[in-house]
Amino acid sequence: MTKNFTPDTIIHSDSKNKFIPHAHQSAIEKAGADMSDKGYEEAYLADALRFKMKRDNKRFWAGDNISDYVTEEHKETLIDEATEAFELVLDRLLIDRETDPNSKGTARRLAKMYFNEIMEGRYEPEPDATAFPNDSADRYEGMLVVRSELRSMCSHHHQPVAGVAYIGIIAANTLIGLSKYTRIAQWCARRGTLQEELCNDIAREISKATDSENVAVYIQATHGCCENRGIMAHSSLTQTTVLKGAFKTDPSVKKEFFDNIKLQQEFAPR
Description:
- With 270 residues, this protein is of the alpha+beta class.
- It is 40% helix and 20% strand.
- Strand 4 (143-154) and strand 5 (160-170) form a beta hairpin.
- It is globular.
């Protein structure tokens, strides 16, 4: 989409004149003052942030958290930029977004949905998991299994993934509030990912929050990429399991975990 703009002269350290669109002249400053002295000249904030992450060797795959680089102020500008991009997509799909009442504003709704909802876990810092000491003489040393409902998105086709994660730990020296297990799991899920990767991500973050090496995660979910396209399999269900520590090495611990899952499934719908 071609936009009219007034070129502003930007003097870089190489003393050459550079131009960027007036509407985006503050993108470099928003991305960080250290960008402007490296010969960087991108017009969009998103491009400036991509440059900064590449320069820092920061991976920014669909399933990666990049909250260290994206502030709340950034998000508003990024939503504006993504709106332009979605407008172009709708135009290329030959959808009349000017007179079709159902398509007016769709581009902005899509941009806000990606940043604030289905991929929120990429841009928000990890939830603060309030920790409680578990080191007294009568400390809890048993197993804890928490059921967490999840919504995620497949990286391949950007189709919804809906399911349940069962998170098990054997208590160590730190306990966290029960709701924090679900908050952490949902934070990991709200981004582009694969179910196998999501299982690993949840196990890693729960282990960090609880200081426990004995962690298990079992996920069962339905995938829009199987239901809404391709094989159109509406009865498809995918199950993945990650077992760490005693859950992997001790058969009795593993059995107790899956017995607990069976009991929870009888108590609550899948």
